[in-house]
Design goal:
This protein is of the alpha/beta class. It is built from 5 helices and 5 strands.
Length: about 160
C-alpha cells in the first residue's frame, strides 16, 4: 500500500484534471472487465474525462452496473454504452458450480446465492447483455448500446 501512496504522490505532482466535469465529455459509458490487460482509455482512444468506465469480473451487466448506468444517463448525460468483453477471460475458465465449490473449500462459506455470471460463449453473452440494456425499462429506449470483443493478443476490438 505504501507503493500506491508513493505512486499517487508522483501522479498528483503532474495532475491537471481538477477542472474536468463529472459528465463524460463523449457522453459514453463503458461496461468492461476488471482484467489488468485492459487499458480502457488507451484501447478506445479516450482521454481522462471522456467516459464513465464500469468494471467487474467478465464485463457483465449486473444490477450494480444498471444502477451506475442509470446515474450516468439520468444525472450525468450519457447517451451511449459500450459493453466490452475480452478473449482469454478468467470468467471463461470456470463455472458457477466451480466457483461455489472453491468458496466452500477455501472459506467454508455457502455461495449458492452469488451469481458469478461465468461466460460460456462471448458472442452469446455480449448479445444477451446488450439486449438486456436495450430492453430495460429504466433506460431510454433510444440509448445507443453496442457490444464488442477485445482481443488481448492483437489489441483489436470487434463489434458483436
Amino acid at each position: 500500500m505504501d507503493d500506491l501512496l508513493a505512486g499517487n504522490a508522483r501522479y498528483a505532482e503532474q495532475f491537471n484534471g481538477g477542472d474536468l466535469s463529472a459528465r463524460p465529455a463523449r457522453h459514453l459509458a463503458v461496461v468492461t472487465c476488471m482484467d489488468t490487460r485492459l487499458d480502457v482509455y488507451a484501447l478506445l482512444g479516450l482521454q481522462l474525462g471522456d467516459a464513465h468506465v464500469i468494471r467487474n469480473a467478465g464485463g457483465r451487466v449486473t444490477d450494480d452496473v444498471l444502477r451506475s448506468l442509470i446515474v450516468s444517463i439520468e444525472v450525468l448525460g450519457t447517451t451511449a454504452v459500450a459493453v466490452i468483453q475480452h478473449t482469454d477471460c478468467g470468467m471463461t475458465k470456470t463455472t458457477e458450480a466451480g466457483l461455489r465449490e472453491l468458496v466452500r473449500e477455501r472459506r467454508g462459506a455457502d455461495a449458492r446465492d452469488v451469481r458469478f455470471m461465468t461466460i460460456d460463449d462471448h458472442a452469446e453473452t455480449i448479445r444477451a447483455d446488450v439486449a438486456s440494456l436495450r430492453a430495460s425499462p429504466f433506460l431510454p429506449s433510444d440509448l445507443d448500446v453496442r457490444g464488442f470483443l477485445f482481443d488481448v493478443k492483437t489489441g483489436q476490438l470487434a463489434p458483436i
